[in-house]
Design brief:
Strand order of the largest sheet: 1-8-5-4-2-3
Number of strands: 10
Radius of gyration: 23 Å
Strand content: 15-25%
Number of domains: 2
Distance between the termini: 85 Å
Structural class: alpha/beta
CATH architecture of the largest domain: Up-down Bundle
Number of helices: 17
CATH topology of the largest domain: Dehydroquinate synthase-like, alpha domain
């Protein structure tokens, strides 16, 4: 007679494998000049003798600023026809409206289908962070993921978001509610795009450089302080150095931080962001991302001092740098309260935790160049920080 297995018996097989991700991050100038091989080399790095089908999506704002760009791209493809089969050049609305519009992703997916994009084709996005986010998200869900190359065109995208592994759009009024973690095939940072940005957009990206310097590299923060006047004038060599230094620190955190796909509860690269995301929402994007992050950095640096983690006076040092770069560190929405008299910006903490899940984890500062994770924020201290910012304003 056969023994009947116990109902409590378990048969568990542990599946385990590792995947290595590798992609080039290129710093160049005039990427679509006929003699510049950065794009061709990126396309061909695994299949050098193949003609690669490419669909290029371009930020409408970039096309407006550079009216010759479309013809430059077409001429570049024609000059490298042995490597590039250009099947379309698609304008995409830029800015946060791109991420808020529920039609953006379905429209992009329809275009990818119409152009017969497959998993060996390339979808190339040229634009600011919002366009990179939207096109990247569409690319990663189409056919479960097609090859994607980013051309960030803003300081913010070149020194931070564009060199990472995240794609997302907004939904239900919540920022980046739906998205993916998917490393791109390549990233090409072309400094020529930065030249035509308006001053406000050039400045916005500097906030992320200040952020990553504060949590990871005190020497880089000192360099930002020493060259703040040149950066405020948007000196090209200084801006190039800021972009490259910030991008490398973001890449290092993703590579060595131990959690590139945010499986845990910590998000160190989002220092200053819990309030920034809420301020963007409360102001209906009157504050752009970099401007909101600058306020969030000032708020959390002051909190670090008041909570006894950071030496007194370092908050003044950080605020002074942000102001020298040209940031206004106050907005009246910081004073907006709900029916119970609680600052609405504090709801950003709950949003922050809900987005990632797990235990609330906020990055504060132990010293300039070194972040520390905490798991609670005292409402009374946050209110004091808001008072401090208003007084300084």
């Amino acid at each position: 007679m056969l023994d009947t297995p116990s109902q409590s018996a378990e048969d568990v097989r542990l599946q385990s494998f590792g995947v290595t991700y590798e992609y080039p991050v290129v710093f160049t100038r005039d990427a679509f000049a006929l003699g510049n091989r950065c794009l061709v080399d990126a396309l061909s790095r695994r299949e050098p003798r193949k003609r690669h089908k490419c669909l290029i999506c371009v930020d409408e704002g970039v096309l407006a600023s550079l009216p010759d760009l479309a013809s430059q791209i077409e001429n570049y493809a024609a000059a490298h026809t042995g490597s590039i089969d250009l099947v379309g050049l698609v304008p995409v609305r830029g800015g946060e409206i791109c991420k808020n519009d529920p039609k953006t992703i379905p429209n992009l997916l329809e275009i990818l289908s119409q152009r017969a994009i497959d998993r060996h084709s390339f979808v190339i996005a040229v634009g600011g962070g919002a366009v990179l986010d939207a096109v990247g998200y569409a690319s990663t869900i189409f056919h479960r993921g097609v090859r994607h190359i980013r051309f960030p065109t803003t300081v913010l995208a070149q020194d931070d978001s564009g060199v990472g592994v995240k794609n997302a759009v907004n939904l239900f009024g919540l920022k980046n509610l739906i998205g993916t973690f998917a490393p791109p095939w390549a990233i090409i940072n072309d400094s020529a795009f930065v030249d035509v940005l308006p001053p406000r957009e050039k400045r916005a990206g500097m906030a992320e450089a200040v952020k990553v310097a504060l949590i990871r590299d005190g020497k880089f923060f000192e360099w930002l302080e020493a060259h703040s006047d040149a950066l405020a004038r948007f000196s090209r060599p200084h801006l190039d150095h800021l972009i490259k230094g910030s991008a490398e620190l973001h890449m290092r955190q993703i590579r060595l931080g131990g959690d590139p796909f945010e499986m845990g509860s910590a998000r160190p690269l989002d220092f200053g962001h819990w309030s920034a995301h809420k301020l963007e929402q409360l102001t209906k994007n009157q504050l752009n991302h970099g401007e909101a992050v600058a306020i969030g950095i000032a708020l959390d640096t002051r909190y670090s001092v008041l909570s006894g983690r950071l030496a007194a006076g370092e908050d003044d040092r950080v605020v002074d740098l942000l102001r020298r770069l040209g940031f206004d560190l106050w907005h009246d929405k910081l004073r907006q309260c709900d029916s119970r008299g609680m600052p609405v910006v504090l709801k950003g903490l709950a949003d922050f935790q809900e987005h990632l899940g797990g235990e609330l984890t906020i990055t504060l500062l132990a010293e300039v160049g070194r972040g520390v994770e905490v798991h609670e924020m005292d409402e009374r201290i946050v209110r004091n920080c808001i008072d401090w910012l208003e007084q300084r304003a």
